[in-house]
Amino acid sequence: MVGAKEELCVLAFLFPVLAFVSLAQSNGNSTNFSFPSFGDNNDDRLKYMGNASFNSSSDGYIDLTPSPNSTSGASSNQTADPYSQLYYSIGRVIYREPITVWPATFTTTFTMFVQNITVPAGQKNFNGDGLAFFLVPNDKLFLPESYGSFLGMFDPSTNGNTTNQLAIEFDTFKNEWDPNDNHVGIDINGIESNVTADLGQNGIYIKSGRPIRVQIHYDGWNKTLQIYAAYADRPIVYSMILNRTIELSNTVPRSVYMGFSASTGTSFEIHRILDWNFSSETLPESSLSIGSVRERSTSKGLKVGLLAGSIVVGAVLLGLSAWFVARKGRRRAMPISRRRFSGELAMMEGRSAASSYAPHRFSYRRLSTATKNFSEMELLGSGGFGSVYRGILEGQDGATALVAVKRISAGSRQGEREFISEISSIGRLRHRNLVQLQGWCHERDELLLVYDYMPNGSLDKIIFRQQGDHHQNQNKNQPLLNWPRRHKILCGLASALLYLHEEWEQRVVHRDIKPSNIMLDGEFNARLGDFGLARLIEHDETNPAVTTMLAGTPGYVAPECGYTGKATAESDVFSFGVVVLEVASGRRVVERKPPLVEGNLVDWIWGLYGQGRVMEAVDPRLDGDFEEEQMKRALILGLACSHPDPQLRPSIRQALQVLINPNEQMMPLPSSRPLAIYVVLPSTTSLDSRSTSYSNAGHAGSASTSSAYTEGASITTSTLHYGR
Fold first, then answer.
1. Has domain 337-453 been given CATH number 3.30.200.20?
2. Residue 111: CA atoms inside 13 Å, Cβ hemisphere, count?
3. So what's the pLDDT on residue 691?
4. Domain coordinates of the chain in residue numbers?
């Protein structure tokens, strides 16, 4: 009865609050449009300005500036310069309807194509100048002097003092204010970018003559603008190019026109848009901080907002007071650990209520119904701390969605820590190669996590399946993964780790990278999941995550972790290297059958590499159906990442470049796997400054190793027989 009274009391106070919030959010709307190609049937939605035009071929595209094939025959004067119309050209394309961009969250994706134009001998063409995606206050602004370096956005009279517009430039000509001729920049007041990023550092070159897919995402809750790019003529593996905090309400009007512009000057090149997609969701006004409300808001509206806010705050305070009074008796008897656990959950629920992108709390009844009361028929698999079930969630509109529900084992203290870690880490991460956490449930002493459903299961269920095997899971009838799909999976995994290690606001060390934690969606894209062991580290933190116990799975744990107890980006790279070797060979890191009866996969493949026979490690089930050089690079990369010395492993950014760029230089490797690892330990008063000898059982006789102490650190050389 106490629990029922608590719920009634809380509902009585919070119902007005929930009703008010629901009313405030009901005015939200979304905008979506898609141009898979361009042509006459799309023309009524787009406005072409200047030299921009569409090509109505079967692969319809937009020429922002003229190209040679579109100007041939345009002039009746056969002696005229055939390239005359390519100089000093300006083109703009604008979506005809205004779009609300604040308060809102939006994502736009487009494919651009920029190509050098070769001119006859004796003529110079340095190529330029680039193109831009823009947000502008109206659809009439066109500056005839905005050619060349102004990219159709500014001119000499407006550059440096333009307001109410924003452009994201893809610059191909180095002016005196530019870092190079291959960069992305965010332009607000003029053509001199507020911030730039070198695309070459991500292996992308605008003038490569290859289609480039660009994704721009604005998070209206966190006020962050993120720019991603990837080559579109291969499996898409986005690299984050820029991540910038921008308050759009201080930059552009609430509703803007958006589109593309490009220009040329004394040099020229082809600027094309091949496709364009856009989606947005208008957010409630509460997503705007009071400090960001601009002068255009009337004083009356501001007073109403403040009054409404005061009412909400007061109601929340009353509700919380009732909640604490009702729970006071029970909290006295609650163990301290459970109080802390419940406090963390309350904080998570508050974060969920504040953002539609945070994982949300589900009721136990709803998840039980979705999984048919956690039926064995819906069981997808079991892990160290619980089981995973398939579920069907029904929305308020009657639509259904497949989900995966992890049920943490009852009474598991480690499971509780995993539960909190999952919510606090993966719940705030957003990347196409990460499993998305939808929500959680803590009810009836149950701990449940709700994820996106991955129809192709985990990588280990497929990659290690032998021909003729009959597994009782959803993958038993799937064909063997061919090499292009395996390579795509490795690229996706590397992209996810790059985001975790370098591109998110904090560095995330996963600590348990292995095939069973790599899920596959409907298109066999890799989705890294299971963040129960993950640790968050500040980017400028000098000390990695330290644990009191060795975390992870034997065979995938970097050797130095056994000495230091520290999880680092380098230890994640080690695990990644082992996975690369497993995917290429189709073998587990430790197998009790030939040729790995007494060794492990890394030792075996490294031995083949030293003998010049590394290709013998390739999965024989592939029947030679792969690009040999690409396979060889993958195997060598796997060895480099699993080097015993963490300082000699490549970064995950370097590893990704090796996978996606065939011209990326490979890492040098010794012919045999080094036996020694080198661990840097902090100096303490308890450390003995004398040299220490160890027996090296891996060689005939004995050898000594020593510890040489320098300022604040000791470098200890020891021998490790890994995997035994």
1. yes
2. 18
3. 32
4. 30-71+82-283, 337-453, 459-674, 675-724
Is pLDDT above 50 for 332? no
Q: How many angstroms separate the CA atoms of 411 and 655, rounded?
A: 40
Backbone angles phi, psi at 631, to 5 degrees: -65, -45
Amino acid in position 103 = P
Q: How far apart are CA 602 and CA 586, in angstroms?
A: 13
Helix axes of 483-498 and 569-585: crossing angle, nearest 10 degrees: 170
Residue 496: its H or E element: helix 483-498
Of residues 436 and 73, more confidence is placed in 436
- Axis-axis angle for helices 413-425, 336-354 (nearest 10): 20
Rounded (10°) CA dihedral 244, 247, 250, 256: 90
Which pLDDT value is given to residue 331?
A: 42
- CB-side neighbour CA atoms (13 Å) of 34: 1
- Which whole number is the average pLDDT over 183-189? 89
The two three-digit tokens of residue 595, written as one number? 């040729």
Q: What is the CA radius of gyration of the chain?
A: 29
The DSSP string of 309-334 is HHHHHHHHHHHHHHHHHHHHHHHHHS
> Over 639-671, what HEC string results?
HHHCCCCHHHCCCHHHHHHHHHCCCCCCCCCCC
- CA–CA separation, 693 vs 696, rounded Å? 9
- pLDDT value of position 528: 93
Residues noted as catalytic? 512
pLDDT in tens, 480-499: 799 999 999 999 999 999 99
How confident is the model over 290-328, as pLDDT tens digits? 334 434 444 445 455 555 566 666 666 666 666 555 555
- Residue 352 token pair: 């969920």
Helices (H), 587-646: 601-610, 628-641
80 to 83, 85, 132, 264: CA distances (angstroms): 9, 10, 31, 19
Give CA separation, 609 vs 49, 98, 101, 588, 618, in Å. Answer: 59, 60, 55, 18, 12
Tell me, yes or no, if the two domains 30-71+82-283 and 459-674 fold the same way. Answer: no
Q: Inform me whether the pLDDT recorded for 14 exceeds 50.
A: no
pLDDT in tens, 87-142: 778 889 999 899 999 999 999 999 999 987 766 555 555 577 889 999 988 887 66
Q: Check residues 702 and 251 and name the one with the higher pLDDT.
A: 251
pTM > 0.85:
no
Return the exposure string of 332-368: e unless at least 16 CB atoms fall within 10 Å of the residue's CB, then b.
Answer: eeeeeeeeebeeebeebbebbeeebbbbbebeeeebb
Q: Which CATH superfamily groups domain 459-674?
A: Transferase(Phosphotransferase) domain 1 (1.10.510.10)
d(CA 235, CA 579): 19
User: Alpha-carbon distance 172 to 696, whole Å?
Assistant: 57
* DSSP annotation of 78: T
Give pLDDT, residue 193: 86
List Cβ neighbours of 16 (8 Å cut-off, separation of 6 or more).
Answer: 315
CATH topology of domain 30-71+82-283: Jelly Rolls (2.60.120)
